[in-house]
Specification:
Helices cover 37% and strands 21% of the residues. The protein is α+β, with helices and mostly antiparallel strands and 178 residues long. It has two domains: 36 residues, no CATH class; 95 residues, K homology (KH) domain (GMP Synthetase, Chain A, domain 3), CATH 3.30.300.20. Helix 1 packs across helix 2 and helix 2 packs across helix 4. The longest helix has 24 residues.
Length: 178
């Protein structure tokens, strides 16, 4: 759908869309458990990984702070982009369900990294984000109480936000092709 044919969804349409799914997941909880998957192919020559997003191929490489030239996506940026995308979609769904009109909105995320950790320069320096901040800049007439509810519910239902706040168990396995 493009911007010229896109129709604004209202709370009733959202409820109608989600009602059968909610009922299905209540009556058959196992149906709600879905495994999302991602796959990337290592570049044979450079230090890069081509990730198939299902919509396009994104080539991820080294951040300039670790020797990259900036022409490839940085996985840290991609993590923040996933947070912004998930929080933005969740906020719009919550606002729609609550009947809060958002005339315009921008969702931003920023995170602090100490590249000494990932480069092995300082074994005490953490590898990964130290802090991540998420901002919602909204043009809305909703009062302070409704904005607080919107923020609280967005945080509660945003998959990426909750995954970062309460990290799951993560395992890795190295398989060798015969």
């Amino acid at each position: 759908m493009n911007a010229t044919t896109e129709k604004t969804m209202n709370a009733a349409e959202l409820r109608n869309l989600q009602a059968p799914l909610k009922e299905k997941y209540k009556s058959a909880p196992g149906a709600a458990l879905i495994t999302l998957k991602a796959q990337g192919e290592l570049d044979a020559l450079g230090i890069a990984c081509k990730v198939d997003t299902g919509r396009a191929i994104v080539e991820a490489g080294l951040h300039p702070a670790t020797g990259g030239d900036g022409s490839q996506a940085c996985s840290g940026d991609m993590l923040l982009e996933a947070l912004v995308a998930c929080a933005g979609v969740t906020l719009k769904a919550v606002a729609t369900a609550l009947g809060i009109e958002i005339k315009r909105g921008v969702v931003r995320a920023e995170g602090d990294l100490d590249f000494r950790g990932t480069l092995g320069v300082d074994k005490e320096a953490p590898v990964g984000f130290r802090d991540i901040r998420l901002f919602f800049d909204l043009d809305t007439d909703a009062d302070a109480e409704r904005r607080a509810t919107l923020k609280k519910l967005t945080e509660r239902y945003c998959v990426i936000y909750q995954t970062l706040k309460r990290p799951p168990t993560v395992e890795s396995e190295l398989l060798v092709q015969a």
